[in-house]
C-alpha cells in the first residue's frame, strides 16, 4: 500500500483528534486574530445605536439549548447594547424548549446591567401557536401575553407603556435557529405591521437568509458565532464569541489543509493508476 | 450542595458521554442520547401544560369567567377523537379548521414575502441614472443594487433556471448556459456547506469552552474526573467485547 493510499484510508478518529486539538489549543492559548466587522452585523448595531432612549426594542429568543453556543453570545451582546442605550427591552420566545434558558439569559444580563424587571425590561415567556403568536401580537399584545413569565400581568407594566401591538415596536430582532424564526417574523410580522426587523441566526441557516438581507427585508444579520464575535467587538465587550474565534480559524485552516491533502493524494493515485495502465 | 455545582457535573458528564460517540457507538452515548430526548420531551409537555391548559384555558375560564374559550377548546379536543375509530371522523372538522386558517394566513403572506419581494430585488435595472441624468455603471460589489451585482444576479438566475429546464437538450450554446448555472449552484452549495462547517465547529467550541470552565477547582474539577471515568468505561467495554464470542448471524 502506497503512502497516498494509506493516507486516504486513515482512521477517521485521527482526524477527530486533529480537529479536537485545533479547537482546544487556541481556546487554552488564545492568539487574538483580528476580527473584521461585516456590513450585515453593523446593520443591527447601527440601528440600535441610533435609537432614542426608552424606544421599544423586542428581542425574540427563538432558539433552544441545542443552538446555545452560537446564539447565546449573540443574545448577550445585543441585550448589553440595548440596556446600555436605555431602551425598553421586551423579550419573548417562540420555542417552548428554550423558555427556561431565555429567562435565565435575560435575567442574568439585566442584573449585570442594573436593570429592573417590569420597568426597564420584561420577559413575556412562550405562548403556543408559533406564527399565530406573531399575528396575535400584531393585533393585541395583552391578549397574547396576559401575564409575563413570572405570572405578573403585562397590563400596567411601565416597560410596556404605550405599547398595544407590534405596530408600536421601534425595532425587533429575532435570534432564530430555525422555524419559527427570522423568516416567520418577516412574513407574519414586519410585512404586515411595518416595524424594522433585524436577524440573528445559526451558521447553518445564514445562507438562506441572505436574500432577505440583500432585498432589504431585514436590515441586518448576525450569522453564527462569527457574527456574535463581531457584535462583541462593536460594543467593546469581548466575550465567549471572541474567545472562540481563534479556535474557529484554526479548525477552518485544518479542514482546508485536510481537503487539500486529500485532493493531492487522490490525484497522485489516479496518475499512478494511469501510468500503470499505460505500462501494462 | 449548590445547584450550579450539580449542573456542572451533569453537563460535563453528559457532554463527555455524547463526545464518546466519536470513538464508537457505546452505552454511555446511548444513555445521554435517551436522556436528552426524554428530558426535552418532558420539559415541553410540562411547559405546554402549564402555559396552555393552566394559564390560557383553566384560569381565564374559572377566575375570569371567559366561557367563550370553550369553543377553541372544543374544536381542539375534536382532534383527540382520532384515537376512537368510530368517532374519528369528527377530527376532520378540527383539521379542516386548522388547514383552512393556516393556508389562508400563510399563502398570501408567503407569496408577498418570498416571491414578489424577491422578484422585485432580482429585476433591478442594469444601469443606474446618475445625478446629472446620465447613465452610470457601478462596480461596487458591496452594494447589492450596484450594476455589477445586478449583472451577476441576472446571469446567475437565468443560467440556473435554464439548467433546470429539462425540455431542451443541453447541447451547443445551451450547454454553456447550463454549465454556467451548475457553476453558480456549486458556489451556492459551497457557501452553504462552509457556513454549516462553521456552525458545527461553533458547537464544538461551545462544548469545549464549558469543559475547560468546568475543569476549574471551584467546581471540583468534574472535567478531569469524569473524563477519566469515561475513558475507563470505554476501555472496560472494549475489553469485555473482545472477551465475548462473536455473534452468530
Structure notes:
The complex is a heterodimer of chains A (280) and B (249). Chain A is an alpha/beta fold and 280 residues long. In chain A, 54% of the residues lie in helices and 12% in strands. Chain A has 11 helices and 6 strands. Chain A has helices spanning 3-8, 12-28, 39-49, 68-84, 99-112, 131-139, 141-144, 182-193, 206-214, 224-235, 240-279, and strands spanning 56-62, 88-93, 121-126, 171-176, 196-201, 221-223. In chain A, strands 3-2-1-4-5-6 form a 6-stranded parallel beta sheet, sandwiched between helices. In chain A, strand 1 (56-62), helix 4 (68-84) and strand 2 (88-93) form a beta-alpha-beta unit. In chain A, helix 6 (131-139) packs parallel to helix 8. Chain A is elongated. Chain B has 249 residues and is mainly alpha-helical. Chain B is 70% helix and 2% strand. In chain B, strands 1-2 form a two-stranded antiparallel ribbon. In chain B, a hairpin with a 5-residue loop joins strand 1 (128-129) and strand 2. The two termini of chain B are 50 Å apart. The model of chain B has no long low-confidence stretch (mean pLDDT 91). The interface between A and B is large, with 55 and 43 residues.
Arithmetic mean pLDDT of chain A: 94
Low-pLDDT parts of chain B are none
Binned, the helix content of chain A reads: 40-55%
Major sheet summary line of chain A: 6 strands, parallel
The topology string of helices and strands of chain A comes to HHHEHEHEHHEHEHEHH
Helix-and-strand structural type of chain B? mainly alpha
Number of strands of chain A: 6
**Structural category of chain A:** alpha/beta
Shape of chain A: elongated
Termini separation of chain A: 19 Å
- The number of E-state strands of chain B comes to 2
Amino acid at each position: 500500500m502506497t503512502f497516498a493510499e494509506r493516507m486516504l484510508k486513515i482512521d477517521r478518529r485521527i482526524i477527530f483528534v486533529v480537529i479536537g486539538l485545533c479547537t482546544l489549543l487556541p481556546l487554552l492559548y488564545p492568539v487574538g486574530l483580528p476580527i473584521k466587522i461585516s456590513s450585515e452585523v453593523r446593520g443591527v448595531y447601527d440601528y440600535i445605536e441610533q435609537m432614542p432612549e426608552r424606544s421599544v426594542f423586542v428581542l425574540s429568543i427563538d432558539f433552544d439549548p441545542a443552538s446555545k453556543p452560537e446564539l447565546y453570545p449573540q443574545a448577550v451582546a445585543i441585550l448589553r447594547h440595548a440596556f446600555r442605550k436605555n431602551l425598553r427591552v421586551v423579550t419573548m420566545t417562540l420555542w417552548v424548549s428554550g423558555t427556561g434558558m431565555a429567562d435565565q439569559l435575560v435575567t442574568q444580563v439585566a442584573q449585570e446591567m442594573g436593570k429592573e424587571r417590569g420597568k426597564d425590561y420584561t420577559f413575556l415567556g412562550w405562548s403556543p401557536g408559533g406564527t399565530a403568536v406573531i399575528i396575535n401580537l400584531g393585533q393585541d399584545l395583552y391578549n397574547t401575553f396576559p401575564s409575563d413569565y413570572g405570572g405578573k400581568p403585562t397590563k400596567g407594566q411601565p416597560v410596556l407603556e404605550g405599547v398595544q401591538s407590534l405596530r408600536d415596536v421601534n425595532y425587533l430582532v429575532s435570534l432564530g435557529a430555525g422555524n419559527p424564526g427570522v423568516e416567520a417574523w418577516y412574513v407574519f410580522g414586519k410585512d404586515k405591521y411595518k416595524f424594522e426587523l433585524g436577524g440573528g441566526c445559526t451558521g447553518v441557516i445564514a445562507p438562506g437568509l441572505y436574500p432577505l438581507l440583500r432585498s432589504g427585508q431585514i436590515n441586518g444579520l448576525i450569522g453564527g458565532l462569527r457574527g456574535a464575535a463581531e457584535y462583541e467587538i462593536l460594543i467593546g465587550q469581548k466575550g465567549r464569541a471572541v474567545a472562540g474565534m481563534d479556535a474557529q480559524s484554526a479548525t477552518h485552516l485544518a479542514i482546508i489543509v485536510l481537503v487539500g491533502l486529500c485532493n493531492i493524494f487522490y490525484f497522485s493515485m489516479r496518475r499512478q493508476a494511469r501510468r500503470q495502465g499505460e505500462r501494462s | 450542595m449548590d445547584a450550579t455545582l450539580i449542573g456542572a457535573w451533569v453537563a460535563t458528564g453528559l457532554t463527555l458521554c455524547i463526545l464518546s460517540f466519536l470513538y464508537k457507538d457505546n452505552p454511555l452515548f446511548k444513555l445521554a442520547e435517551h436522556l436528552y430526548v426524554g428530558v426535552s420531551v418532558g420539559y415541553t409537555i410540562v411547559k405546554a401544560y402549564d402555559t396552555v391548559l393552566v394559564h390560557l384555558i383553566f384560569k381565564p375560564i374559572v377566575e375570569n369567567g371567559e366561557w367563550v374559550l370553550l369553543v377553541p377548546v372544543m374544536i381542539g379536543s375534536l382532534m383527540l377523537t382520532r384515537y376512537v375509530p368510530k368517532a374519528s371522523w369528527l377530527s376532520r372538522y378540527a383539521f379542516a379548521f386548522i388547514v383552512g386558517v393556516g393556508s389562508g394566513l400563510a399563502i398570501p403572506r408567503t407569496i408577498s414575502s418570498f416571491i414578489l419581494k424577491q422578484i422585485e430585488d432580482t429585476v433591478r435595472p442594469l444601469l443606474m441614472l446618475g445625478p446629472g441624468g446620465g447613465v452610470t455603471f457601478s462596480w461596487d460589489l458591496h452594494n447589492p443594487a450596484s450594476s455589477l451585482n445586478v449583472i451577476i444576479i441576472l446571469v446567475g438566475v437565468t443560467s440556473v433556471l435554464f439548467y433546470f429546464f429539462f425540455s431542451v437538450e443541453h447541447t451547443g450554446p445551451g450547454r454553456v448556459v447550463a454549465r454556467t448555472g451548475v457553476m453558480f449552484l456549486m458556489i451556492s452549495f459551497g457557501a452553504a456547506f462552509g457556513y454549516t462547517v462553521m456552525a458545527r465547529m461553533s458547537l464544538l467550541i461551545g462544548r469545549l469552552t464549558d469543559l475547560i470552565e468546568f475543569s476549574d477547582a471551584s467546581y471540583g474539577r468534574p472535567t478531569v474526573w469524569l473524563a477519566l471515568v469515561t475513558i475507563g468505561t470505554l476501555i472496560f467495554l472494549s475489553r469485555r467485547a473482545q472477551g465475548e464470542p462473536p455473534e452468530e448471524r
